[in-house]
Known about the structure:
The chain has 371 residues and is mainly beta.
Amino acid sequence: xxxxxxxxxxxxxxxxxxxxxxxxxxxxxxxxxxxxxxxxxxxxxxxxxxxxxxxxxxxxxxxxxxxxxxxxxxxxxxxxxxxxxxxxxxxxxxxxxxxxxxxxxxxxxxxxxxxxxxxxxxxxxxxxxxxxxxxxxxxxxxxxxxxxxxxxxxxxxxxxxxxxxxxxxxxxxxxxxxxxxxxxxxxxxxxxxxxxxxxxxxxxxxxxxxxxxxxxxxxxxxxxxxxxxxxxxxxxxxxxxxxxxxxxxxxxxxxxxxxxxxxxxxxxxxxxxxxxxxxxxxxxxxxxxxxxxxxxxxxxxxxxxxxxxxxxxxxxxxxxxxxxxxxxxxxxxxxxxxxxxxxxxxxxxxxxxxxxxxxxxxxxxxxxxxx
Length: 371
């Protein structure tokens, strides 16, 4: 029941965002009548009825009041890191029920994101203990007439490790894949091509999962050295394994310290081109926070923390150190090597040349190193 409730709330939020363009307090306040009408159609006597944007269109008559998106508070340093969630135009109203463009200045655009979230656990020697990738290809369409699209993926794509031949080195092998119900898989087996009519709003074309060995974008090497009865020094060396043409953006490293910590001083050893490195001890939370706006590929950054305790260090206190948690995102990069070969209109439509925006974003979901 809890899962169904969460799913319903997620769908309500998605529909609201499709209609309003952005989901914020101001958007909800200014579009209260529209959202009330949507809720009235979506839920009847407490039971979900219509929860898809395209099925709601014939029953909803209010127009959205467009609200400017809430500005980001400095988290993004590069627009390429933004996903399709950053497209804040309402989908509803760009085309009418007959598929004609309502606004003659409306661009025919489609946004595609290949988004991967990493779950990685390192041991205290910096070696990977467990690693998975949860990925998806999500789209948001502003195409007039709702034409059929063709999306082609890697020619060497293999679904299921059991199906991978012995000479599959270099191929993209995914554990499992699930597709949106609008996707036609007739040509997928032979040509790795998907065809579909995009539904209104933002939607996920496919979800995929990959477990096992893959090259992690960052590696973490921790070390703890006791320098006195009540003092010790922690060294954390982080290494960016990707190519120099890529970089980690908005890197945030968190190091929990023992509850008996009285003080901690931080020092940094940074390579060139690192954006705004900083580290501080947050006394109230007993943790050190290390941030970098930009972490270039093929570089190393080191944090040294000198910790003072209010009592002698014991094995129990040592166990309170860590684990190290790392958060980041890498624009125009993905670990699985899943690629979009092309995205095109299935039929030849003279004079119809939509803008296609394809972006790759890799994010940490749970990136942990044990101490």
